[in-house]
Amino acid sequence: MRSIILDTDIGSDVDDAMALAQLLGTPELDLVEVHTVYGDTLLRARLARRYGVLAGRDLDVVPGLAEPLSGREVWWAGHEGTLHDGLADETVSVDSAPERLVARLREHPGELDVAAIGPLTNLAKALELEPGAARWIRHLWVMGGSFGDEKCEHNFKSDDAAAQAVLNAGIPTTITGLEITQQVTIESARLERIRAAGPLGAALGADIEQWWAYWSETWNVPHDPVAVLALSRPELFSFSEAGRVTIAVGGERAGHSTFTPDADGSVRIVTGVDAEQVAEEITARIVAAGTAYAVARGEIDGDRA
């Protein structure tokens, strides 16, 4: 059992909600709490809390920083949470995520993994508050960047200053970039399995379809679930040797990421993926999260789940 804190910008691209549901269906991971970042972090926190309720989990959810350290304007799709009635009734923490992260790490040094699947603003602020926190994170799992090409990935571009600070702090880190996540897709057959997985599956299925409609597609790339799965199923991935990552700050190439091998470095990147098996694992864990609670409530026949 490994304990993990999820830092997420849940609510725009549906992959954050998928990653949260996946974690809720992964029994070998203890999801300690969820932190939200970027934009309306209170709304994001309420949405994360709602997904916990749908899975029968009493999640501790902490809103974080709304504005990137880079000063870049927040991208907002406009549909965040619109399919979830009564979100204002969901109770979330009055604390701030950077302060909470420091407190948790101080209480449990070397015992907590962090999965950061949005801009790295909360983590950068936490390190500013307590530089020693970099030594207290067991391992940092990041969805961000794109390596070996000229793409500037959203999370790193949205807060290039935060990405630079966090990835140069000496934290043991694994990064999954776009060149890996884009090899994995979720299409209609897997959507139907998710949709049938109780109330959580129905809600997530609707959010997935909303995202597909936003882009006029019938599939999506589960960027964040892929990055999170590298923690619990590393045998489905290949990884680089140790190295360092540099982030372009400012200008037209803001957020562009470069990996350089270095035996003294603290960062590795994912270099390969079993795409079909990863898509299956993501789907199966989401289905497990939804069906377990639905069976317990008698909403699904356990023999047919």
List the topology elements.
Elements lengths: L1 E7 L6 H10 L4 E8 L4 H14 L6 E3 L33 H11 L4 E5 L4 H9 L7 E7 L10 H5 L1 H8 L5 E4 L1 H4 L6 H8 L2 H18 L7 H10 L4 E3 L3 E5 L9 E5 L5 E7 L1 H22 L9
Parallel strand pairs: 1-2, 1-4, 2-3, 4-5, 5-6, 6-10
Antiparallel strand pairs: 7-10, 8-9
Q: How would you sum up this structure, described in words?
A:
It is a single chain. This protein has 305 residues and is α/β, with parallel strands linked by helices. Helices cover 39% and strands 18% of the residues. It has 11 helices and 10 strands. The strands form 2 sheets. Strands 3-2-1-4-5-6-10-7 form an 8-stranded mixed beta sheet, with helices on both faces. It has a two-stranded antiparallel sheet with strand order 8-9. Helix 9 crosses helix 11. The mean pLDDT is 96.
Assembly context of the chains: single chain
Give the ordered list of helices and strands: EHEHEHEHEHHEHHHHEEEEH
**How many strands?**
10
Distance between the termini: 25 Å
Mean of residue pLDDT values: 96
GO biological process, one term: purine nucleoside catabolic process
Keywords: Glycosidase, Hydrolase
Organism: Kribbella sp. HUAS MG21
GO molecular function: purine nucleosidase activity
Short description:
InterPro entries: Inosine/uridine_hydrolase_dom (IPR001910), IUNH (IPR023186), Ribo_hydro-like (IPR036452). The protein starts with a strand and ends in a 9-residue tail after the last helix.
